[in-house]
């Protein structure tokens, strides 16, 4: 085993890590060069096991046991482990694993001990965020956590099986770069490629709550978790479980901060942290010359009410210009999220100020029905009950509109699935007009079919439970958490999401729909819970979302021509339809559609042209 140190931190309870491995033929120099692309994920130590037919490595930023004995890859008899993440209940699991000859106090060793006692089923006992590679002689397991907080990618080539925490480490093993058509189509539909697809033909990803077994050249996969298996009407106390979730994520000796917007999610995290005796320093975004987009005033009011020290990070058009290409490259593949760049600069400042952990509010909107769109769609669902709707069906078929409400009503009258994630962007009909090849109406439903099938076979039937389930799976798991991981990891920051503690999430999801919907207002339940911690002024603020002037800056920077340039070379889109989107974006309409086209064009120019 070869190991080398690159930096020395002394951090307890933190695993900002990169996993990388090869099973099969490889050259050491090529493997090490690929591994070097993950250095940002853990600059404290790099451990390498280099044997014939096996290269297993781990980029590490200290863990619970900072001693050299806890370095990874971790070896225990015939087992090897490279682990990214944190198992919050590893102390409790040690008690269940009484009699094991412990060598360290790390959670990595607990994973191996649990595997020895319970087999791969041990993953169902883990609480936390994790992605890991576990080798048991000739058998390899790759595992991704329940909600997809940590990533895992893999490639099965002719000579080797390669896996890593990011695509960039696998790309050198491709014979050539080709765009995966399925990834592109699902990206246009849902903002991010739907598992197992990535934009690189041949490179695949695990979905949340899934593990893979590679043995003797064969791959098998198994889903081990879905929130749909939660028993209905759980009697667990959600407020108590949220306290426990936040407490687990505060249990670290490293400097820890929190993101603070003007909304209720981050305010609740900070308020409960304060109730537990920890006033978190907070960070808020603002926009130079575009103050209408930012929430500095509301965030300051929240910080003042809770007595917190709040740092405002103001971003200018120059910052946008200087960092856009860096951020898009950091993502590895197209991700249609205009908030990635502002978040990148915010995380950069947090890291520069010496923090190693940051708390964020992902998952709250999806669990507590925090999007106005949920209630709009719930209302439109009622139109399905109309007995005389043939005229309306014919009307909507003969009067096309790009507006999403037109699409929603058309689906109701066609008796097809209405809600297709909060991240749905280009509808099938919009894609058919835009792309040069034919796209049938409802074609994108094939990406949702496995999830819809599980929902229909579950104990849940109300549309609101479908909204939460599919959004947690795709909108959160493949969109928001992908952004959060790549952007925080770019600065070697560990981002933790208390609302996505699975015991807490299940307690909210399992409630009957009347309780979750409440008085037909967004986040009814969370607001009720928040009355103990926050003023009515904070609880009743109008939701703004993570808005920013991305399109104004993209236009002002004269970058829009990139979309035309790439299309002229690839012929992927109809020029006249493409011009419609660009023109509408100049008028402030269909902005995220056009941003998605820009991100796609950036990737295609870099990788294909």
What can you tell me about this protein's structure?
By secondary structure, the chain is an alpha+beta fold. 41% of the residues lie in helices and 16% in strands. The protein has a seven-stranded antiparallel beta sheet with strand order 1-3-4-2-10-9-11, with helices on one face. Strands 5-6-7-8-12-13 form a six-stranded antiparallel beta sheet. Helix 6 links the parallel strand 14 (256-259) and strand 15 (282-287). Helix 2 packs parallel to helix 3.
Q: What attributes does this structure have?
A:
single chain; 609 residues; alpha+beta; seven-stranded antiparallel sheet
Concise synopsis of the structure shown:
With 609 residues, this protein is α+β, with helices and mostly antiparallel strands. It is built from 24 helices and 18 strands.
């Amino acid at each position: 085993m070869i190991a080398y140190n690159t930096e020395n931190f002394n951090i307890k309870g933190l695993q900002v890590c990169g996993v990388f491995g090869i099973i099969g033929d490889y050259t050491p120099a090529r493997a090490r060069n690929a591994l070097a692309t993950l250095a940002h994920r853990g600059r404290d130590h790099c451990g390498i096991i280099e044997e014939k037919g096996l290269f297993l490595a781990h980029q590490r930023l200290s863990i619970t046991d900072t001693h050299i004995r806890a370095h990874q890859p971790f070896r225990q008899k015939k087992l090897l482990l490279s682990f990214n993440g944190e198992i919050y209940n590893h102390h409790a699991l040690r008690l269940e694993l009484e009699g094991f000859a412990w060598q360290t106090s790390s959670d990595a060793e607990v994973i191996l001990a649990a595997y020895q006692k319970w087999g791969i089923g041990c993953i169902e006992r883990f609480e936390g965020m994790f992605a890991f590679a576990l080798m048991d002689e000739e058998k390899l397991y790759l595992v991704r956590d329940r909600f997809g907080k940590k990533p895992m990618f893999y490639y099965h080539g002719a000579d080797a099986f390669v896996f890593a925490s990011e695509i960039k480490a696998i790309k050198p093993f491709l014979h050539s770069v080709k765009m995966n058509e399925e990834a592109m189509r699902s990206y246009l539909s849902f903002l991010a490629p739907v598992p197992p697809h990535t934009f690189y033909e041949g490179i695949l990803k695990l979905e949340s709550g899934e593990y893979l077994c590679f043995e003797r050249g064969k791959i098998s996969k198994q889903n081990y978790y879905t929130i749909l298996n939660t028993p209905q009407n759980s009697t667990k106390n959600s407020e108590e479980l949220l306290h426990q979730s936040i407490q687990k994520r505060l249990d670290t000796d490293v400097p820890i901060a929190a993101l603070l917007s003007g909304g209720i999610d981050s305010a609740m995290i900070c308020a409960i942290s304060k109730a537990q005796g920890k006033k978190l320093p907070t960070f808020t975004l603002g926009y130079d010359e575009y103050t209408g987009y930012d929430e500095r005033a509301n965030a300051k009011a929240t910080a003042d009410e809770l007595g917190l020290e709040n740092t405002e990070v103001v971003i200018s058009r120059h910052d946008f210009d200087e960092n856009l290409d860096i951020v898009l490259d950091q993502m590895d593949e197209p991700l249609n999220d205009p908030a990635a760049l502002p978040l990148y600069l915010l995380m950069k400042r947090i890291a520069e100020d010496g923090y190693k952990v940051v708390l964020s509010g992902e998952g709250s909107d999806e669990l507590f029905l925090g999007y106005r769109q949920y209630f709009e769609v719930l209302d439109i669902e009622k139109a399905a009950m109309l007995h005389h709707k043939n005229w309306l069906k014919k009307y909507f078929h003969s009067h096309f509109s790009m507006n999403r409400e037109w699409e929603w009503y058309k689906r109701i009258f066609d008796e097809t699935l209405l809600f297709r994630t909060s991240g749905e962007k280009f509808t099938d009909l919009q894609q058919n007009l835009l792309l040069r090849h034919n796209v049938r109406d409802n074609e994108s439903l094939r990406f949702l079919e496995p999830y819809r099938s599980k929902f229909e076979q579950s104990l849940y039937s109300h549309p609101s439970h479908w909204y939460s389930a599919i959004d947690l799976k795709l909108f959160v798991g493949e969109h928001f958490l992908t952004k959060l991981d790549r952007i925080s990891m770019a600065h070697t920051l560990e981002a933790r999401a208390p609302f996505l503690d699975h015991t807490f999430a299940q307690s909210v999801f399992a409630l009957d729909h009347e309780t979750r919907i409440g008085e037909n207002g967004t986040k009814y339940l969370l607001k009720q819970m928040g009355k103990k911690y926050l003023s009515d002024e904070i609880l009743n603020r109008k939701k703004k979302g993570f808005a920013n002037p991305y399109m104004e800056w993209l236009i002002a920077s004269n970058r829009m021509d990139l979309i035309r340039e790439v299309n002229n070379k690839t012929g992927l889109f109809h020029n006249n339809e493409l011009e419609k989107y660009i023109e509408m974006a100049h008028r402030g309409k269909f902005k995220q559609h056009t941003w998605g086209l820009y991100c796609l064009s950036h990737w295609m120019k870099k990788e294909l042209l």
